Amino acid sequence: MGSSFGRIRRNRVEKGRYREGESKERLQAMATWRETFPWISDEIPDIADEAVRAAQIAVAEELAAAILRLHTHRTFGELFSTMATDFQLSDLQVDARYRRAFDQLNVITLADLAPHQLWELTDLRGVSQRGAHLIVRELILANLITPRATEDLAAEAESEDDSASEQAAATVEVSPEQTADLTLLARWRWLIGQQDAPLLRPLEAAPELILHARERLASLPASALLTSAENLAEVLTAAIESLGEREQYIMKQRSFADQPCTLDALGDTIGVTRERVRQIQRGAHRKLRELIASRPAGEFVAFLRQRIEIPTPLATLIAHYSALGENVAPVAQPVWRVLDVLDDSYEVADGWCASPAIAAAKKATGERLQQLANAQGVVPISDVWLGSNEAQGRPAWLADWLTHLGYTMRGDYLLLDT
Question: pTM of this prediction?
Answer without folding.
Answer: 0.56
